[in-house]
Structures are given as C-alpha cells and as structure tokens.
Amino acid sequence: MPRRLWGALGAALLSIVLPIPSRKAILIAAALLASGPLLAAEMIPMSQEQRQAMGVRTAPVAVATESWSVAYPAQVQVPTAQLRVVSTPLSGLLESLLVAEGDAVKKGQKLASILSPELLSLQRGYLQALSQLDLARSDWERDRQLLEEGIIAERRYQTTHAHYVQVRTEVEQSRQTLRLAGMDRSALERLARERQLSGTLTVRSPLDGVVLERMATLGQRLNALDPLYRIGRLKPLWLEIHVPLEQLSQIGVGSTVRVRAPLVEGRVITIGRMVHGGDQGVLVRAEVTDGAERLHPGQFVEVELASGRAERNYRIPLGALVRQGGKAWVFVARDEGFLVVPVIIRAEESDAVVVSADLEPGDQVVMAGTAALKAAWLQGAE
After folding, report:
1. Distance of alpha carbon 297 from alpha carbon 101, whole angstroms
2. pLDDT tens digit string along 61-84?
3. φ/ψ (deg, to 5) at 70
4. Nearest to residue 63, comparing CAs of 307, 362, 349, 306?
5. Residue 171 has what DSSP assignment?
6. Model pTM?
7. pLDDT at 51 over 70
8. Across all residues in the chain, what is the average pLDDT?
9. C-alpha angle 202/206/209, rounded to 5°?
10. Which residue from 48, 75, 184, 272 lies 20 to 30 Å from 295 (Cα-Cα)?
11. Is residue 111 domain-resident?
12. Do 217 and 94 touch, CB atoms closer than 8 A?
C-alpha cells in the first residue's frame, strides 16, 4: 500500500479510539509521514506550529560529573564517641532532676542531686585517713630527727616511713573514690578544711551536648551505676545505610551522600564488610556536618549515593528517554525539527537518567510528546 495511504488510514483509525488532544498529535504525525520520506530516519522535520499543536515540550541537558543512585532508607545516629550515659556513681535517693529531654547542657553543668548515705561513709573515711596521715607524718618526721641524732635504729625509721607511705596511699585512694563519686577538687579541699560532711551527691554533665533521654524518675531509689540521662553531641551526625552488595562497586570512602528531605549532604566514612541477613545489604556509614542541625537522632530518611565518573555524561529528564530495539534514544531539538540521538544509560536516578551521548551542554531534548515523535520516526524509517 502506498505510504501516503498508510498515513491517511492510520490517522483515520486513531481518530476513532483516541481522545481529542491525542488525536490531534497523531494526526499531525500522520501528516508528516504522508508528506514524504524522512531524512535518513534520523531527522524528524517539524515546524514550530506543528510542535505546539502536538504539545512537544523540551528541557535542557546538564553535564553530570556524578550520578545518583536510587533512594535507600537510612537512619540518623549519634557517633559513638559523642554519646555518654550519665549514671549515678553511688546508691541513694534521687532528690532532683535539673534538666529534661531536649535541653542543651554544658560540660560540668549540674544534672541531678542524690541523697546518698554511702557518700557520708566515704567522706568520713576520707577525713579519718587525713587524720591518720597527719599522725603518720608527725611520727615519720620525729623518727627522722632521732635517726640523725643516733638515738634510734635505722630499722625503726624505715618502719615509720613505710607506715607513712601506706597511709598517704590510703588518703589518695579515698580522694579518688570521692572524685569518681562526683566531688570536684574544690569540694574536696573544702571538706578537708571545714570537716563538714554532706550527703547530697551532685551529678554533672561530662560533655557539651543535648539531653537525648531521661532514664530515671524523681524520688526513685537508685543503685550504683543506674542510668540517669543519655547525652549526645549532635554535630557531626552519622547516616547508617544498608546498600545492596551489587551496588557497592559504585561507591567508595569519600563518596557524596544526599538526603532527600531535608536536603543535606554528607560523605561516606566507612563501608562495612558483613552482609546483613535481613536485607542482604552492607552497612555504609556517612558523616554529615553541614546541616546536621536539621537532622534528628533516630530519624529515618531517604538518601541517594553519588558515584563519580571520568567520562563526560549528561543528566536528562526521565521522560526524555525513548527505548527501541533494546537501545535508548533521545529527540534533540533543531531548527528544522528533531534529531534522533542514541544514548548509553550510565545511571537511573529517581527522576532523571544519566547518559553518555553525542550531546552538547544546553541541547534541548524532548520530554513531552515523545510518543508521537517516536511513531513518526519509526514509520519514517520503513
């Protein structure tokens, strides 16, 4: 059958089954087919009026120095070195809680107070050790003088000196125990000077950070090492991502990671070695510094991983890709019509495709109206 007759017949049949806007586009494509052969099946001639009537819309291509993966789920975590669980060093009654979840705290800031009989016992032992130290020092200094005068034997002096060293060690042990219990140097000096006991134990923050969790209740009886608060420093933060094993070759330490919402970026710092049985994924950890304040520990987010490439690639809209015969193509706008250009797909992103092709930055590719153009191209190639 002559080509003009095929074009007319196809247009008539399509006009019966297609809605009015689609009929109009196909009719124009059929008219193009009936007008004569296409230029080596590579250029589709089309005027500006025909483009508008067919609803053809274009978008510029952009140079892609890196491509983005599909979205993977990730969880925001506080780096382990920036986390502290604040516990009570001694048993007692929780008298007051001075901060709450979400509060920012400074290192050394008071967090809670505990009434602790055990603290009284430790202070009493420390004061007794100080008294014994004064006595042992006096005995040692006296015997040293007597030894110099030849009044006592050297063995007695050595015994006295050994006792002094032992008592001094006991004092240091008591002091360190009180330091671990939360008494700072000034409090210890005041205790030694005033000899006044206190049963109130003050718990302080070990670092600058934010209270992530309160783990005790006011009035609770606590045993030693019972947790009170969990505190973390929230900059930088980690993103923990499970990536399919077959995708690991596309990324490396230093690769960019992009959070989709909120839009922040980080860098891969570690790539795990173990495949997790639940999802057969490998743990990839990224660190986020700039914009970390927009993330929250425990939050689940979607992230995309970047893979850099040496060759010159282009990013085009997902709708601009045309597949035919196991290959991919795009329609590139020219003054006289549209040029059919083959492309090689390098990466498929969420809403775009990274390709390598004979394109130039700023080229316009068709992103709407590709169906009618494809019909005209294929018919013209016959």
Report:
1. 13
2. 988 877 778 889 999 999 999 999
3. -65, 165
4. 362
5. H
6. 0.65
7. yes
8. 86
9. 115
10. 272
11. no
12. yes
Average pLDDT over residues 164-174: 96
The position carrying tokens 């495709």 is 353
**AA letter at 330:** V
For the record, the structure tokens of 302 come out as 């979607």
In angstroms, the CA 380 to CA 382 distance is: 5
pLDDT for position 2: 39
Confidence of residue 29 (pLDDT cuts 50, 70, 90): very low
Q: How many domains does the chain have?
A: 3
Sign of CA dihedral 306, 362, 59, 21: negative
Q: Which residues contact 14 (CB under 8 A, 6 or more apart)?
A: 22, 23, 26, 27, 30
Classify residue 61 by burial, with Cβ atoms within 10 Å: 0-12, 13-18, 19+.
buried
- Beta-bridge partner residues of 256: 267
DSSP string, 281-329: EEEEEEEE-TTGGG--TT-EEEEEEEEEEEEEEEEEEGGG-EEETTEEE
Q: Which two tokens stand for residue 277?
A: 């049985």
Which domain does 276 fall in, by range? 72-80+234-309
Q: So what's the pLDDT on residue 27?
A: 46
Domain stops at, among 174, 198, 222? 198
Which of 286, 309, 332 represents a domain boundary (last residue)?
A: 309
Strands (E), 78-199: 83-87, 92-97, 104-105, 110-115
Instruction: Collapse the DSSP code of 95 into the 3-class scheme (helix H, G, I; strand E, B; otherwise coil) and give the result.
Output: strand
The answer to whether the CB of 240 falls within 8 A of the CB of 266 is no
Residues in the chain: 382
The per-residue pLDDT for range 367-381, each reduced to its tens digit, is 998 888 888 888 765
CATH number at residue 273: 2.40.30.170
Domain of 58, CATH number, reads 2.40.420.20
Asked if 308 and 29 touch (Cβ cutoff 8 Å), the reply is no
